[in-house]
Design brief:
Low-confidence stretches: none
Radius of gyration: 18 Å
Number of domains: 2
Number of strands: 12
CATH topology of the largest domain: Ribosomal Protein S5, domain 2
Largest sheet: 8 strands, mixed
Distance between the termini: 19 Å
CATH architecture of the largest domain: 2-Layer Sandwich
Strand content: 25-35%
Shape: globular
Mean pLDDT: 95
């Protein structure tokens, strides 16, 4: 009997290197070098057969169903592969929004992966990848989840790297989000030319977590700090904690992540951030490649 429903995890991502270049192309996009890795903190996505295409979430995401990235991904893939729009999608949200962790993009990619699984379609079929790129710049990364360098507008998979799994990570987000649109607008007012991502790429080729921590870079961070000064406060606090190797904002924020010496350090730091500072926080780990079906 054919499978009619499934569940899978939609992991968050961290930008290990984010280099935004000044100026925009003819499409209105910035050129970007983005080196990303997945972490175990994840939304839960359920897909099942239904009479029509619908989407529900555990919390109000603030946008109508038709504009939700996961719904748009399902509709676009059904059209591209000439399938009926007969699925109900539910997302249990565990990754905060406006955090720079790619929750919406990961949800969209997980819907694509789930439908590919149900239909026995290769997830890297050109039609699937085209749909992913059309939904959002980060979405293609989540189709494979290998540590990766993306170029172009941050949507062209340039190269992948060996899995760097089980690195202890503390995630801390202040009680404020950062609009990606506003972050880029602020960046444009005072742009910073980024360095090459090669140092980060070299560290990932060697699977050297210490070298990865030493090469962290994000030139959107100053713009995010202007919009939400609490992000700078979180990073300063993290860098003062015993057991933190290095810390940086991910994406346009507002979440800051810390590479930690041990899993116990990550758990202690997350607990202190929640109980002493009243910030959203969790201890997690980096994850390897591949879709995570439940």
């Amino acid at each position: 009997m054919a499978t009619t429903s499934l569940e899978l995890l939609a992991p968050a991502k961290l930008n290990l290197h984010l280099g935004i270049y000044p100026g925009r192309d003819e499409r209105g996009y910035h050129r970007a070098d983005s080196v990303m890795i997945g972490v175990a903190q994840a939304d839960l996505v359920r897909i099942e057969r239904s009479d029509e295409l619908s989407l529900s979430t555990s919390i109000d995401c603030g946008v109508p169903q038709e504009r939700n990235t996961a719904f748009r991904a399902a509709r676009a893939l059904c059209a591209a592969l000439q399938r009926d729009e007969s699925y109900a999608i539910h997302i249990e949200k565990r990754v905060p929004s406006q955090a720079g962790m790619g929750g919406a993009s990961s949800d969209a990619a997980s819907v694509l992966l789930g439908l590919c699984k149900l239909w026995d379609v290769d997830q890297l079929d050109a039609r699937v990848v085209d749909v992913a790129r059309g939904i959002g710049a980060d979405v293609p990364f989540f189709l494979t989840m290998s540590p990766a360098l993306l170029t172009g507008a941050g949507d062209v998979l340039e190269q992948t790297f060996p899995s760097l799994a089980d690195v202890p990570i503390a995630l801390v987000r202040p009680d404020v989000g950062v609009s990606t649109v506003e972050a880029y607008r602020t960046f444009d007012a005072d742009p910073i030319e980024p360095p090459s991502p090669e140092a980060m790429c070299a560290a990932l080729r060697e699977s050297d977590a210490r070298a990865v921590a030493a090469a962290l870079y994000n030139n959107l961070e100053p713009a995010a700090n202007k919009l939400a000064p609490q992000t700078a406060e979180v990073r300063r606090w993290l860098e003062e904690q015993p057991g933190v190797v290095a810390a940086q904002l991910t994406g346009s924020g507002s979440c800051v992540f810390a590479f930690c010496e041990t899993h116990e350090d990550a758990r202690r730091i997350a607990k202190d951030a929640q109980e002493r500072r009243n910030w959203w926080a969790c201890a997690t780990t980096t994850v390897g490649a591949g879709a995570q079906f439940c």
